[in-house]
Design brief:
2 domains, 11% strand, DUF4123 domain-containing protein, DUF4123
């Protein structure tokens, strides 16, 4: 069950009275909202009076795209009251209406991240802008759209302990939604953000890890595009990604490598049967598979007759069994 975004914010509001800054500054609740796919909602927010917000891109090379910029917004007292309820005569605020509309849209819940901090808005804007890009040792630079919480979740796995601590420094608590419907809750450093004189630097290995963590999403997008309406259960992206991850683990156990062979294996596991590899004839072919051999995975399974594929389990029970199955040993 997907956690309520309103309840998540109220949980942050409840922390406010318990924290003060080093000079007695009150703790405040903030949201970072990714408006890149929602310019109409940003236009609505921009008309709000008595609301403190600013662009995360304000001090980056992306500041020219102000009409789709991710915004750092302080959740004002009136909006906190509306979210806590009860509501009277449908009274609301611009911010609450924007957040409600955002969460009604596909993928909208990943466009909001909430946190508590005692740091002022301008200091936070400068802090978060530093994490919008990074450089490699060879001088290549890349944008990092961490305000999409799916990408933030990857970034927190890619960054080393020092880099994670740097990002979390000005926050007391950070909440963001996860793919499984739950909410990640991380403690922050509860200190002033540090000054950043130069672009964040990552290693080539960290850069590659971003691609590796994105790979299940990439395959899921390809599957939904190639098999529209034909995948069992007609899953959306969130439901499909865990199934892809399960098949990737099983593919790696057989030594399947390369984009085409990996895609073919995952496609069989998702579109035909999640336990197709357990059939003796198919498993024999998989054991004979070697990366780089002519024909790849297709050649390794060419001897399997159609009658075998037709008898493989395709039910939800079969899929559940695959998800519970231990990783196979094929050595």
């Amino acid at each position: 069950m997907t956690a309520s975004w309103q309840a998540g914010l109220i949980e942050l509001f409840d922390q406010l009275p318990h924290h003060r800054g080093p000079y007695g500054e009150a703790a405040r609740a903030f949201v970072v909202v990714d408006f890149r796919g929602h310019p109409d909602l940003l236009a609505q927010l921009s008309r709000a009076e008595d609301l403190s917000f600013g662009s995360v891109w304000a001090r980056t090379g992306l500041d020219i795209y102000g009409d789709v910029a991710p915004m750092l917004i302080e959740v004002d007292g009136a909006s906190q009251g509306v979210l806590r309820g009860p509501r009277y005569d449908d009274f609301s605020t611009v911010l609450v209406r924007v957040l409600e509309a955002l969460h009604e849209r596909a993928g909208g819940r990943y466009a909001m991240t909430g946190f508590v901090s005692t740091s002022p808005l301008e200091a936070l804007i400068g802090h978060f802008g530093h994490f919008c890009d990074y450089a490699l040792p060879d001088g290549q630079e890349f944008f990092l759209h961490w305000y999409d919480s799916r990408i933030l979740h990857r970034a927190l796995q890619v960054w080393d302990a020092s880099q994670r601590g740097d990002f979390l420094a000005p926050m007391i608590a950070l909440h963001y939604p996860l793919r499984d419907g739950t909410v990640a809750r991380l403690p922050g450093g509860a200190r002033r953000p540090a000054a950043h004189e130069e672009i964040q630097r990552l290693t080539p290995e960290q850069h590659q890890l971003f691609f590796d963590l994105d790979y299940p999403d990439k395959l899921a997008v390809q599957l939904r595009r190639l098999y529209p309406g034909l995948l069992p259960g007609n899953p959306d992206q969130d439901a499909l990604v865990p199934r892809v991850q399960t098949q990737l683990e099983r593919a790696r156990a057989y030594g399947v490598r390369g984009d085409q062979d990996t895609f073919d294996y995952v496609a069989c596991g998702v579109s035909i049967s999640p336990v197709f590899d357990e059939h003796p004839l198919i498993q024999a072919g998989l054991r004979s598979y070697r990366p780089g051999l002519e024909g790849g995975l297709s050649a390794a399974l060419a001897h399997v007759p159609d009658s075998v594929w037709d008898t493989l389990p395709r039910t939800d029970a079969g899929r559940d069994e695959a998800e519970r199955a231990p990783r196979l040993s094929v050595n």
